[in-house]
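Subject: sequence -> structure tokens, single chain

Hey, anyone have a minute? Need the predicted structure for the following. Not urgent.
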Amino acid sequence: MKYMFMRNTRTIEVINRDFKAGKLFADSSYQRRTVWNDQDNVRLIETILMELVIPEVYFWTAERDPDTGISSTHIVDGQQRINAIVDFISGEYALNMKYLTNQSIKDSCGGKMFKELDEVWKNRIWEYPMSIVEIDPACTITNIKDMFFRLNLTNYNLNQQENRHSKDSVFGDKSEALSRYDFWKNAKLFSSTDAKRMKDVEYCCSIFILANEGIVDQTNGKKINNYYDDYKDKFDSDDVLKNKILEAMNVIDDIIDKTTISFISKKAQMYTLFCVIFEMIENKNTFENFFGKIKIFVSAYSKFRNEFVISYEDEIMSSLYENIKKYKLASSEGINKATNRTIRFEILYKLCVEGDKQVFEALEKMTEDMEQRLEGKKDKKDLLEMDDVVDEEE
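Reply:
Had a minute. Here:
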């Protein structure tokens, strides 16, 4: 065996002390983001209080001061468990009753913070022996990252992007840096769960790919995986792609308001906007009237319902109706298919960049038609509900 791995135990008291002192830490350069929720945390503490076994954690002593003997230890695997334990001891959360399953623990510890526990329960936590796998200090950081990747390769809880994060890649680093811009918060594109599971980084990978080579099919993770490998050492070193993306983000920032946010905050629509704006940048189009056109399109799109079958005699109105219907379909299923991405891009570009005054007058008229139909549908529903009440009273 090339490297030695030793198994032993450390009490939670020792692990907590080392973590607080900074001697024990999780290296964010390859670790996943924290994804455990309150239920996960509480169930782990409950298991410890019941003195049952929890999965072992992996430590690697990277550096040791030869004079003092003080070491710096990486948590290679198990940071979620250690964070949950340290956070409970620090008073970050209580043992929510609804997540506890053991009646004895529920009666004695339910609803309590660590500081509120009786002495016997506190000591049970402090003295709990965690199983540790100590990795040979002779391992390099590259070995450790590969080991983390292998440990989680078959773990269904670790998604593709979290696995990619365990690899060194310039493309990955740039995508992660892009995900940190406040723009994404302003656009309300990602939920807290998206951020925890690195879906924001994965999305930014897609935007970089779009800026680099245009619309591609991303119904699986193969394209992004290839970019992580192909651009491991060098990507966008002159920041041409990054600046192109930032320019597009500034345009989108300018068109965000209460009428457009529900549209822009959808990932498929945001991707389509980037497609259109990149094309406008390439063609040196002006953005002078872009906001107004997008606003009118969004108003019509938001009122459109597939169940409304309308036949317009006017050629422009008829064409608009079919285009919006087609756009709506391409936004509802297979949104990451190249064909559906292309459909959305072509329609939005045709209407909001190439569309003239007549087109937008027709769009406004169509919006009014849809509003009337929605209002009629609401009135009909109200009448039916009133009839139901009458029937019940009789």
